[in-house]
Amino acid sequence: MKPRFPKPEVEPETPEVPIAPTINVALLLVLFFMMSAPMMYHSGITISAPSLKKAAAQKKETEVKVNVHITAEGIILLNNEPVNEEQFPQLLAELLARSVSRIVLVSADETVPHQSVVTILDLAKQKGALKLAILKRKKRQK
What we know:
Layout: H1 19-40, H2 52-58, E1 66-70, E2 76-78, E3 81-83, H3 88-98, E4 103-108, H4 114-126, E5 131-135
Parallel strand pairs: 1-4, 4-5
Antiparallel strand pairs: 1-2, 2-3
């Protein structure tokens, strides 16, 4: 018995989907997200580390209005005076309001968590600091 509809001898070609452009688009998307991801986490706080060579070359004395130090015990020293954590934001705002340069210098003992320093930097920026600097204090000789 012969089939009613004979099978064609040449099968029709199935259209092939070009894979190269799809791969190119996928790689471009991956590159885009890799390059834009750090911008999502950018905090807006810029810190410039002071250079000893520049300081020695200039030999100028600069006026420091706001100097914050965090001790290993968690005590905040504002211009070398201990300050209560509840009073600190208000006192910081008052000092920055009187300051012309609005520079805040922050230092901490070695055992202080980084989050505490970042919190102080963020608070200083919120209260109107224009420039922030992180300083490393010399160890006291006993």
